[in-house]
Please model this.
Amino acid sequence: MEEQAKQVDNEPAGSDAVAQSTPPSGEDAAPGTGELFSPALLGQWFGVPMLIVGAIVGGAVLVVFLFGAPATDRERSIDSLLQTLEANSGKKSAGVLLPKEKELWQTALELTQRLENKDAELTEEEVGSVAARLVGIIRADMEAPPPYAATPAAGQAQESIRSRRLEFAIHALGRTECPAAVGPLIDIVRDGREPYVRVALQELGNLYEVPEARSAVETVMALLDSSDVPETLLTACTVLSVLAKGDDQQVVEALERTRLSRDGEVAWSAALAMARLGSAAGKSTLTDLLDRSFWEKGERYERRDESGAVHRYKMPAHRVDGLLIAAIDATANLDDPDLWVLIEQLKSDPSAVVRGRAVEAVEARLQG
Model:
């Protein structure tokens, strides 16, 4: 199938404002470097669990770039970070001005980073307390009134930064890895407010080893029919692939409907999610995804600029490699002989990393 690829902050295929040119400098940098982790990147890598776990790395880089490195003084305890956020959450933040919002964003980021190594600072009981306090902060901020600002432009800027703070608070909740975090994350998904839905989805995916996270499957599956946001849809596909059971026919059917009714990365993500769940229903799409020429012809890479214009480029080489590897990894779950012929052919791919992954997949199949 001949779908168009989507990149961060873009719209579905068919957008009218289209400009064609060569990719801007730096486009071939490693994915996730210098930008907040995006669901589009998640979709391009199709939800390999360890990539989901790395969801906030790009965000840390962006915050440091824009506002300077967050405080890393270990004298500032996790409890102190929480107290700062609690003191400025909900209605209490109505009069908070832009410079303070930047500091609060950094505080939420630092808390998220510190919780990556929570076992070094917190007991299991303390982690549970942190999760409960974060739930309170998130709920208060979700209900908070618009920030005070002298002008509409200043208000918009402040609201954008406050939104980032809330996003990092949601990431921090996921980093606690507490079963008690699952329910509030599901509530955020049900609430339907973007971009928080996508952030909560990412964190539910991060919790794939927590048994309680499987209770999110029905809610996440419902998004496939109710959401029109491409980034949310492809993230939902990814999360289902790590939370659902392989024999859950309802999930497979929902993913197949999504594959047939959507295009670009959403359809690709749905096909590969089904493959990881053991279903070859998306075989026609998988056939394309295992073909280097499919990725290299045309202008499958799109990026929307600040004015809303969509720029189309050839898919960058490093992304082609990553997409082929993702396709190999997902398809390796299937026994379809036609698809395995395509994996065999990738053993002769021009890219050493793609060749290596294809060889590994074939050898693992022979040994298994």
About this structure: The two ends are 31 Å apart (CA to CA).
